[in-house]
């Protein structure tokens, strides 16, 4: 009986060990608000590249509620795959139309990470400003602000700017886009009224309006009773665009991301 009990105990222990190893190999992480790929990589002591590869991600943009597989691939020698320390990283030269969110997404960090590394008190950055990227992975200083053919957005066009307070209704799409442009160093007027009037009023203020999206431009349409506006975060090589917005699929004040297919992207107005 003692020998049997020992064998049973040994077998149970081995099974538990195998189960533990299997759990480690298939850890699931639900992205929380404020997290970036970089902070998640640090938490699990793996590299940003490993997370992107294991989850077939084409970039470093992740969203709250998204479920990521951690360590599902071949982790290999973890000595060389840990996330970089905050003291390490790259530098990034800000280009017109970029915001902290855009730059953070390129490098797999959060906007707050960049603010902390550069002692910034707010989200306002300026073209040609050099930023330290804490432990960033990948990214290209100019990738986030190029058109699909690699040219400079807007052909050297200088967008008008205003020094206004945000008087749009809190949480509405207009309120959100006003803040996004301010963060990008391209502040707009606070007097364009509802979204369905933005293209007309922006044109009157000297802005270029067309059907060609560029990073940092404002997408405008006439959906719903008062129209809708969103911020263009990225123009993809296939002509589709990634926008950020609020009060569309989410409650007022809650930012969200959406991809607009190339087949309809050119049907909207874009304020540059």
From TrEMBL:
Top-level taxon: Bacteria
Question: Residues annotated as region Disordered?
Answer: 136-158
Family annotation (SMART domains): LysM (SM00257)
Task: Specify the LysM domain's residue ranges.
Answer: 27-70, 90-133
Q: Which residues form the Peptidase C51 domain?
A: 148-272
Listed A to Z, the keywords are:
Cell wall biogenesis/degradation, Hydrolase, Signal
The UniProt entry, under Pfam families, shows: CHAP, LysM
Q: What is this protein called?
A: LysM peptidoglycan-binding domain-containing protein
Species annotation: Staphylococcus ratti
């Amino acid at each position: 009986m003692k020998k049997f009990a020992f064998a049973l105990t040994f077998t149970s222990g081995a099974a538990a060990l195998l189960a533990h190893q299997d759990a480690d190999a298939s850890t699931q992480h639900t992205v929380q608000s404020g997290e970036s790929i970089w902070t998640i990589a640090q938490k699990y002591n793996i590299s940003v590249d490993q997370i992107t590869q294991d989850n077939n991600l084409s970039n470093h943009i992740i969203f709250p509620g998204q479920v990521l597989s951690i360590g599902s691939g071949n982790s290999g020698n973890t000595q060389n795959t840990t996330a970089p320390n905050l003291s390490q990283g790259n530098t990034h030269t800000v280009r017109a139309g970029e915001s902290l969110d855009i730059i953070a997404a390129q490098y797999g960090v959060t906007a707050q990470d960049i603010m902390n590394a550069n002692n910034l008190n707010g989200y306002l950055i300026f073209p040609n400003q050099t930023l330290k990227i804490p432990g960033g992975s990948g990214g290209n200083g100019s990738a986030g602000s190029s058109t699909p053919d690699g040219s400079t957005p807007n052909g050297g066009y200088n967008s008008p700017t205003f020094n206004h307070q945000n008087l749009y209704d809190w949480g509405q799409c207009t309120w959100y886009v006003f803040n996004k442009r301010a963060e990008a160093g391209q502040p707009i007027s606070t007097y364009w009224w509802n979204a369905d009037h933005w293209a007309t009023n922006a044109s009157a203020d000297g802005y270029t309006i067309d059907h060609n999206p560029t990073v940092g431009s404002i997408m405008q349409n006439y959906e719903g009773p008062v129209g809708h506006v969103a911020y263009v975060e990225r123009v993809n090589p296939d002509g589709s665009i990634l926008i950020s917005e609020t009060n569309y699929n989410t409650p007022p004040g809650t930012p969200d991301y959406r991809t607009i297919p190339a087949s309809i992207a050119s049907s909207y107005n874009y304020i540059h």
